[in-house]
């Protein structure tokens, strides 16, 4: 397990490939702004 192992992160870097162990970019979590709700008067 090391540079020659394609299933490891180090192996992915050496092989210049990407995958589950070495994603290209971290997925950004989209934060949706909350909608302002009008309160009903009683």
Throw out a few tags for this protein.
single chain; 42 residues; rod-shaped
Care to describe what's here?
The chain is built from one helix and no strands. It has one helix at residues 9-15. The model has no long low-confidence stretch (mean pLDDT 84). The relative contact order is 0.15. The chain is mainly α and 42 residues long.
- How many β-strand runs? 0
**Biggest sheet features:** none
* Oligomeric form: single chain
Shape: rod-shaped
Q: How do the helices and strands follow one another from N- to C-terminus?
A: H
Mean pLDDT: 84
CA-based gyration radius: 22 Å
Report the sheet-strand fraction.
under 5%
Structural class: mainly alpha
In which range does the helix fraction lie?
Answer: 10-25%
Low-confidence stretches: none
Count of DSSP H/I helices: 1
Q: Note the gap between the termini.
A: 69 Å
């Amino acid at each position: 397990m090391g540079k020659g192992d394609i299933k490891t992160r180090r192996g992915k870097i050496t092989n210049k490939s990407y995958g589950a162990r070495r994603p290209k970019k971290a997925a950004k979590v989209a934060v949706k702004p909350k909608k302002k709700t009008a309160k009903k008067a009683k």
